[in-house]
Design a protein that fits this description.
Elements lengths: L3 E8 L2 E8 L4 E5 L3 H12 L1 E7 L6 E7 L4 H15 L2 E3 L5
Helix pairs in contact: 1-2
């Protein structure tokens, strides 16, 4: 069985999940709202420049991120997904 990292997401009352397959480096978005599912998939397929905190809260480093590159890049891309898509990641809710 494939090793998968999965997190819960929601858009309004539409609960779903986003998963990253560590072996194939593929991303799957599961939401009932097709438009928001596609929007999240498109966001996760693109390269993003994300400001990552450095040594203190005023020190940021711009990092180029492709979500499918590795699980850490996937997690980092998810931290900004809600700003671009209104699809929110529920880090503490089981998926």
């Amino acid at each position: 069985m494939a090793d998968v990292y999965r997190v819960a997401v929601h858009y309004g009352n539409d609960n779903g999940f986003v998963e990253y397959n560590l072996e194939t480096k593929t991303i799957k978005v599961k939401l009932a709202n097709d438009a928001k599912r596609r929007e999240a998939e498109e966001y996760l397929a693109k390269e993003h420049t994300i400001a990552v905190a450095g040594a203190d809260i005023r020190d940021f480093e711009a990092r180029q991120v492709i979500a499918s590159q590795d699980v850490e890049s996937f997690k980092l891309a998810l931290t900004r997904m809600w700003e671009a898509t209104d699809v929110h990641v529920d880090w503490s809710r089981p998926a």
